[in-house]
Amino acid sequence: MCERHFYINLCTQLRLTTHLFTNTSLKLVTSEYDQLNTAIDDLGTSIGSTLDEQKHELERTHAEELRKVQVSVDELTKEKIQLQDSIATNERANQLETERDWYKKEALHLDETLEKENAKMKELASKLESSQQEVTWLKGQVDKLTKEGGVSDATAGESCLDETKGDAKAEQDGRDTAEAKTE
After folding, report:
1. Alpha carbon 87 to chain centroid, angstroms
2. Are 175 and 127 in contact (CB under 8 A)?
3. What does the pLDDT look like over 33-81, one tens digit per residue?
4. Which residues does 136 contact at the CB level (< 8 Å), separation at least 6?
5. Residue 28 CA to chain centroid, in angstroms?
6. Distance of alpha carbon 148 from alpha carbon 97, whole angstroms
7. Cα dihedral angle (154, 157, 160, 161), rounded to 10 degrees?
8. Cβ–Cβ contacts within 10 Å for residue 175, how many?
9. Cα–Cα distance between 147 and 160 in angstroms, integer?
């Protein structure tokens, strides 16, 4: 029984010691627990405010980047429109140049045709003048012969016509040769 008594005694002492330690320890643990909770709350609040600040900073930075991207997109859109307008203008300019070249070619062709026609007209005018001079000369010859008398009008007209036919034929042959050279 001794052993049992020893154990009972030991248990009683332990209970008293535990009770003393428990009250003091419990107060100490509770106090440190409260301090720990306060520190955790302060840390949570500090972390929360830091996270809020970082979140606001990130949102502001993100919004600024989005604005920059939008500005860049707007500038590129304007540049694209300008390039499309430039291409359309270039296409229209090319079309106008093609039309201009055609009109220039046509104008040169018409100038050449006009020059040829003017040359022909001058030649015909020259022939007309020459023919009028021949007619005037022939009339003068006919008048001269009729004044001299003695030659009948019919004979004078025939002889003059024979002379002028020969002269006219020689003159025409000379013109034909000159025409062939100019062409």
Report:
1. 2
2. yes
3. 888 889 888 988 999 899 999 999 999 999 999 999 999 999 999 999 9
4. none
5. 85
6. 75
7. -110
8. 14
9. 15
H runs (alpha helix) in the chain? 2-148, 153-182
Q: Model confidence at 156, in pLDDT bands (50, 70, 90)?
A: very low
Number of residues assigned to the chain: 183
pTM of the model: 0.37
The identity of residue 76, as a single letter, is L
Structure tokens belonging to residue 79: 């540049």
* Token duo for residue 102: 């055609």
Whose structure tokens read 């010859």?
141
Tokens encoding 30: 């509770």
Tokens of 42: 């302060």
